[in-house]
Amino acid sequence: MPFSRRLISKCSLPLTLASRRPAGRNTGLLVAGLSALLLSSAPVEANGPCGGDFKAFLDGVKAEAVADGVPAPVAEKALAQARLDKQVISRDRGQGVFRQTFLEFSDRSVSSARLKHGANNMAKFARVFERAEKDYGVPAPVITAFWGLETDFGAVQGDFNTFNALVTLAHDCRRPQLFRPQLIAALHMIAHGDLDPATTTGAWAGEIGQVQMLPEDIIRYGVDGDGDGHVTLKTSSADAILTAANFIRALGWRKGEPWLMEVAVPAEMPWAETGLGREKTVDGWARLGVTARSGALPAATLPASLILPQGRKGPAFLVFPNFSIYLRWNQSFVYTTSAAYFATRLAGAPKLTPGSPETGLSVDEMKALQKKLAALGHDVGKVDGILGSGTRQAVQAEQSRLGLPADGWPTAALLGRL
């Protein structure tokens, strides 16, 4: 999902993260901490009431769907077989958080096997990717990286009954405003023959197919890539590739521009000027001593931020306007940076230089740090042991105040000083 949709969270994919869009984007082994970014858990009514008597709830959904154009017999038949799935609620309530560092996650997710598989798929579907770039301006490596991280190129798409998952989450009163519209959209897909309420499976939060999308997004951005008259993201790689391209374009992709580049940084520079949201031109960074690790820096006037996922002694990247599309796809900084790095590798960039990052904090130490930062007046959000954007900004501010290199990477030295 974009991220409006991506604020969910993944759940079953192979090495992907586990939490990004509304709450069910799949991601397997690595429970992703985008969960921290999930939408508010406060009960809110959507277009109809949530909770309560299940039959009354289904009757309300049927009335709303029919009013929205779903044929009454289709809605009635689909909803008659709907069931609440307790396992979906368990997943929703028990989402893990993503506490891996960038180097840990990227090393695992951007593996040699996945790079090889990605390159093979770009060759196998070369004509489809050519169409994706021609029609939507999105290059093959960008689409392929998402495809690989989401489902290992379709190998792991989730095994929850999609319709029941959406019914369950729309009935539940935690986020009905997010899932009830997805349930109505699923009924439209059923009417069109693109979803079978009995057999279609996917992520626990209702995301479907090789690039894991929710029904509303499939309807809005779906592209029939194989010409069969349907958008079937589960079984058609062509549909998945072109739909992802259309969606990425809608997120604001700037054709022909880079998204991320590994760079080398000098031993000393104004570290407080680094981080997302602090932009200079490429030429401005070059004047501070930033150089490309491979090849040449892009256009001198292109705006860029310098990000240091694990501080000034770890890997460094310039990120450009297109990097924001990754953040809209998934708001986890570690996942986003890994996906963008994966795409550069698929485009021919060499393996990154890990450097020698200072040792980070344990979960308990991070919680202690967050408590101290909050006591100092910083908004770090929930004290959860996760290095999110609020904590990074607070760390950088305190590093500056204490005369430490303000690279946004929390260390035991900072914790001790506070």
TrEMBL record:
InterPro entries: Lysozyme-like_dom_sf, MltB-like, MltB_2, Peptidoglycan-bd-like, PGBD-like_sf, PGBDSf, SLT_2. GO terms for biological process: peptidoglycan catabolic process. Pfam families: PG_binding_1 (PF01471), SLT_2 (PF13406). It comes from the Bacteria. Residues 364-418 form the Peptidoglycan binding-like domain. Signal peptide: none annotated. SUPFAM superfamilies: Lysozyme-like (SSF53955), PGBD-like (SSF47090). GO terms for molecular function: peptidoglycan lytic transglycosylase activity. Residues 54-343 form the Transglycosylase SLT domain. This is Lytic murein transglycosylase. It comes from Pannonibacter tanglangensis. The lineage of its organism: Bacteria, Pseudomonadati, Pseudomonadota, Alphaproteobacteria, Hyphomicrobiales.
